[in-house]
Specification:
The protein is about 20% helix and about 10% strand. By secondary structure, the protein is of the alpha+beta class. The chain has a single domain, classed as 2-Layer Sandwich (Herpes Virus-1), CATH 3.30.40.
Length: about 80
């Protein structure tokens, strides 16, 4: 099950579970669409994989299967990762 991480690893922007701006790779590294599209050019700086839109979990399922609260942040942000 996807963790649905709460923030962009590059700029720390909040990405709630219902966000259409969240992008993930196959390892669930999470980025906002501005960072993913402009800085990272659609590729994960951690694994090199493709960044795609993160699926949104139905609100009715979030109570039983909550999103992660663990924030992950790259030490030097996107600019150093690209």
């Amino acid at each position: 099950m996807l963790q649905l991480r709460p923030n962009c690893e590059c700029c720390d922007k909040d990405l709630p579970p219902e966000s259409a701006e969240a992008r993930i790779c196959s390892f669930e590294c999470t980025f906002c669409s501005p960072c993913a599209d402009t800085v990272l050019k659609g590729h994960c700086p951690n694994c090199g994989g493709e960044l795609v839109a993160r699926p949104r979990r139905p609100a009715s399922k979030l109570l039983k299967f909550p999103a992660s609260t663990e924030r992950v942040l790259k030490e030097h942000g996107c600019a150093k990762a690209a």
